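Support case: iron/sulfur cluster complex. Customer-provided input:
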Amino acid sequence: MISATELAKFPSLEWEDAAPRMSSQCRAAVEAVLASQNGNVLSREQCLILANTEGDDLLGLLLAADMLRRELVGNIVTYVVNRNINFTNVCFVGCKFCAFSRGPRESDAYFLDLEQVAEKAKEAWQIGAREVCIQGGLPHGLPPFYYRDILRAVKHAVPGMHIHAFSPMEIVYGVELTGMDLTDYLRMLRESGLDTLPGTAAEILDDQVRHVLSRNKLSAARWEEVIRTAHRCGIRSTSTLMYGHMETPEHWVNQLLLLRGIQEDTGGFTEFVPLGFVHQNTLLFQQGLARSGPTLAEHLKIHALARIVLAGAIHNIQVSWVKLNRSLSQLCLRSGANDYGGTLMEENISREAGATAGQYTSPEDFQALICEVGRIPAERNTTYSRIKIKAPAANFGQEFSETEFTFA
Ligand code: SF4
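Agent response - structure generated as follows:
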């Protein structure tokens, strides 16, 4: 086992020092990916070996992921200026890892009407946000076309706003409420203003684990069906995995390979986001069904493993800063990640579960965090097709200059 102090010092190690200390199996696997810059050279067995690394092998994995990140996406670290809008916390699903949801009669239950949602989007636009991320609980008796109507209300109020909205679970609920076919429903949402879909509600895409996390959640196969259908309809999405609860490294590998396979077929994922389980206020932890969130080694390893296994398929690995403290989020940036996610403005879900990273990270905070690790901050749009570089890292502390790039 490697101590947390040693682990926190890994960025000062050189590959030339770390590589000879690795086992031959691990070293051969990561060197094959470094040479080809593609995770598809790994067998499932090799992925499992990498997912179970400890000690010197883990240090080598982290360094290799960082080198691969530099080769594949360079030294820029992106973020998006966005606002989270959780339009209701009323939910009947009852996920045991969730501390956000409320019953309809609880004193702090809330439900935002269409005007309130549109108003929040308008406020966000006025202070520089170009994306709203809209998700909520699933309340009984939701008006059947409420998701569509949210999109129309937001686009009417702020036509230029990118709407990143509705988890696959919400999509399935919308299909149930309206009685529509999944493809028709997604097309209707796209025509009403849906730009991209959060790849949340994935947690661990294994029905045995899902059954413990939440009996009422959509199955792994249904999650995949919603995502593939959305991609086919021209709606891109993120991809996620929740780690640090009751899952094993084998679940990580299975999920990364599944996501890789979907991406090879559709090309619809914009990024992969590992989501650390925040345990404090959850039933899952209180009932003894989960460990107390990820260890430092797990936080770093999942970002590194994702970079290596997804190389050549999904280019952007995001650090979910709401679940991590400042220095840990920076260590994840040094373990293969290249994106900080959104400013959020109003994060609720992780905070209710016990996270203390705050509800908002300003663009200036992101720029400082990124410059502190010697990288270059850039604001991006949701699909990474446009980035605005803020300044060479060495110039931090001075006036920022901006250079904008648009990609096809
Ligand atoms: S995670 Fe979402 S679906 Fe599950 S209980 Fe919480 S709000 Fe409801």
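The pocket of iron/sulfur cluster is lined by residues 91, 93-95, 98, 100-101, 137-138, 169, 214 (CB under 6 Å).

Case will auto-close in a few days if no follow-up is received.
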